[in-house]
Amino acid sequence: MGFMLTGKRLGIGLMTERWSDRISERFRLKLDPDCTAWLDSGWWRNPCGGEFQHALHPDELLSAAPDSIWAGFMLPDTLPVISNRYGDWLCWRVGADDTLQEVVHWYHGGGDWLPFGKNISEAILLDCTRASTPSASYASGLVSNKSTADTEDANLWQWACERQQLHDLGTTPSIQLRDPSRVGGPHPELTRRLADNPAVLFDHILAAINWALKEKADPGLARKFQVAWEPDMIQWMFDGGLIPNERRTELLEALNVDANVGEAQDWNRAAEVAKYLGACRNDLGWVFDVLGWSYERAGQIEQAIECYRQGILTSVFSDQSITVRTHWYDERFRKFSAARLFALKDHLPDAVRSDAYLNLLWNAPLKSGRVDIRKYWFDKAQQELANQNPHAAYEAFYRAGWDVGSHELSSYVDILDGLIRASELAGWHARAAVAQIHLACLKNRLGI
Known about the structure:
Elements: E1 4-6, E2 15-17, H1 19-27, H2 33-41, E3 54-55, H3 58-61, E4 78-83, E5 89-94, E6 100-106, E7 113-117, H4 120-129, H5 139-144, H6 155-163, H7 188-193, H8 198-209, H9 212-216, H10 219-224, H11 229-238, H12 245-255, H13 261-264, H14 267-278, H15 285-297, H16 301-311, H17 321-324, H18 336-343, H19 350-353, H20 356-363, H21 369-386, H22 390-402, H23 411-426, H24 429-446
Antiparallel strand pairs: 1-2, 3-4, 4-5, 5-6, 6-7
Helix pairs in contact: 4-6, 8-14, 14-15, 15-16, 16-18, 20-21, 21-22, 22-23, 23-24
């Protein structure tokens, strides 16, 4: 099953090759055992598991311009692997060392992304045990209706357990594992294996700050209370402590909630989890938004400012603002962290208040601001190339395209070209190869 007969290829001729060899050659990748096993085992042929059940045939990644790559939308260092057929994908993400450093869940609605595992088997394991994602409205039925007696329907679960060397978990994921606040449920080893997974930690944060209003509120309730759905009701959903005292009693009565609002959310727990993850990686906007707010609401302004400073350097596609409910800020600031820094303007050190990028976020026009921000990062990338600093140039080109995004799809042609040049100069060959495929897909879509 792991080998297949390929046709004549340039300079090689008829020979037997593995999919992993061909993918490795195409993208100049050093494949890990997990990826190799996925490509060569054949499990992708008819996968069934959690939400993501429709694997990409490896041959599509070998085409000149794979249809499954949403160039300009998907991150330029990612390759799609498994779809939920709702438009979302689990994608491999390429690291600077030419390896696959992680799997991300890419949401087609808005282009958001969430780290989902160190490798594809961990991502599948999580997908089979995690509650359906907020982006897929139909997924709860798709997942919960899986029969726990049908072993054939859970073949991805079996494959992931084997790859992760997890035994005694059964042939199918138990339905009781689907509560996101109890990932792993009664299985200590599964809990331990997924403990540091960012998606699991994200679920812990959501569980900590969830409360009745977030579950029950709708625009009708906002009209009943004669408040705006945005920002007022969204603010209250995010943090019950923001509800004016004079409205609190009647709101709790309408929700049939007896508990004290201040005790309904555990912001200390949310901050603890966010702080832990923030020490591991600096590219997740929701981490610094939640941690910054937890400091701000506790009156620890200096700590809040430092978190928000890190937050403004994360992509808007990493902030999960709709799910966390941080999208009540004034959209002219484009990022929750930038809006909070503006609210704390009188407390900012001079070095922060005068930061060029922060001021761009504050002052760029709402309609044309994306162009200004893209140009800011693109010009910075060009300058870093001129200074023979390809690492910094790559990061700036990346931000030019995926910091706040661009309405002009054609602008990604130059951005991807810059990423390719910077990658090659930095010796990041796999990143260059993946960006090259994204560029080919983009040009094909634009008819260039």
